[in-house]
Specification:
By secondary structure, the chain is an alpha/beta fold. It has 6 helices and 6 strands, in the order E-H-E-H-E-H-H-E-H-E-E-H. Strand 2, helix 2 (57-70) and strand 3 (75-77) form a beta-alpha-beta unit.
Length: 162
């Protein structure tokens, strides 16, 4: 199984008037930058068989932009991606076919914690995702048993690939 991990794109900051914390959407700049980054993603990895996303608007919008770039992919909400329950995310991944290509879109610090867990790295040594960044992990068995990092790409590089 291949697992693509994506952090949501640039959203309105914490404490922005008119937006509750869990309702913050992408900014126009975040949307524009990730549309380009998604075109870069398309160049390095084909469409996933399953696209799981946090239900929070900023992640959902990021997943929708990626889905549009891949064409024909529909995001499915996975609540564990919003609340940081890494074990629940891993169990959700393990319920999917072993030969599937899976993409997940979530939030910091949870996507870094997920990557760290998959690589067997303590959370203090984790790779921090930039907004719109991505990583691909090869999972030879259960997600609960971890995997091997294939690549880790910053959003700036994805935009250049576009």
């Amino acid at each position: 199984m291949k697992l693509l991990i994506v952090r949501h794109a640039i959203a309105y900051p914490h404490g922005t008037p008119d937006y509750e914390e869990d309702e913050r959407p992408l900014t126009p700049e975040g949307r524009r930058k990730f549309e380009r980054a998604a075109r870069g993603l398309v160049k390095i990895i084909g469409p996933p068989d399953v696209l799981l996303t946090s239900p929070l608007p900023r992640a959902r919008q990021t997943a929708e932009i990626a889905a549009e770039a891949w064409g024909g992919v529909s995001p499915t909400e996975e609540p564990a991606l919003a609340d940081g329950d890494i074990d629940a995310v891993l169990r959700a991944i393990d319920r999917l076919p072993r030969d599937a290509r899976i993409a997940v879109v979530g939030h910091e610090p949870y996507v870094s914690a997920l990557l760290g867990r998959l690589l067997g790295v303590d959370h203090t040594d984790r790779l921090e995702f930039r907004k719109g960044g991505a990583a691909l992990v090869n999972l030879p068995g259960s997600a609960l048993n971890g995997g091997r990092l294939e690549w880790y790409v910053r959003p700036k590089i994805l935009r250049k690939l576009a």
